[in-house]
Amino acid sequence: DIRSNGYHILYLTSRAIGQADYTRKYLQKVEQNSYQLPDGPVIMSPDRLFSAFHREVIIRKPEVFRMACLRDV
Description:
By secondary structure, the protein is α+β, with helices and mostly antiparallel strands. The chain is built from three helices and four strands, in the order βαβββαα.
């Protein structure tokens, strides 16, 4: 178990904050070989859907948000 080893799981996505419920539900449903992802906070982009979509899909630079966010963590 990851937590028993002292690790704290943090999920980071450049998805828009408006997709928060969908993203959390998706993470809860992920399963592989009867294992599920551990619980943890989900850090999301504060941008609106179009801004996040533009960054992720059109200019293909989702790492811009992620790198800035990880520096703050």
